[in-house]
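Re: weekly structure request thread

Next one in the queue (245 aa):
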Amino acid sequence: MSSANKRKRDPADELICPISLELPWDPVTAEDGRVYERISIETHIKNHPRGLKSPITNKKMGKKLVPAIQHRNMTDILVEDGVILGDLAAKWKEKVNQKKEMEELLKKADAGGACAMYNLGVNYENGYDGFNEDEKLAFQWYSRAHKAGNVRGTSSVGMHLLNGWGVAKNEKLGLVHLSSAAGQGSNYAAKWLGVAFANGEYGLSVDKAMAISWLEKAVGDCPEGPLTDESIQDAQQELDELKSS
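Done, posted below.
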């Protein structure tokens, strides 16, 4: 093959994770000598509890992973200097900005910002904005938000206790928090109290009147979110069905 037909080598080819096919933000070297995005190779390892093999060579390998700090630094330099361009570079820069936003949010929360604490809980619960899903950390941040006087934090603490998300299940205490938040205007708490009374959940007896009352608050005069429009529509549908039955 002539040199004219040879594909020009791209530095990014040696840096991308062979599983995610992106520049690894948290690169680790596996026992097959390859560098991967940590979450990608950890998922591969988790999905192969027996007879673990390299996803590249298909040869047997162990589970040990070593942080590839130089790999991360080199990627940062090549993107910053414009050596790596296109979608790979754009996604990397997005992660850099996301990391800065994460650090800023953590800084605000550590400084006592109740809203920041609640938002951290949301991010950890759902894996938003670069955060890994972690129900325990979500509950911890919701608890801190609640103690700082954030009503949304109170409602989330209630739901986590009721369902055992990231904390030992405690329906009585969960209902205390949920009722408190609903009383303070949380449409989220009001909706789920209404649903609980409608279906007799969390140790509550079925109470149509109470269900209608809380659902009306959820779709009406509750000043506190964070119900989405879709969730409000669901609450309205539940309410309409109760009133027509």
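The beta strands are 27-29, 35-37, 66-67. The chain has ten helices and three strands.
Next request, please.
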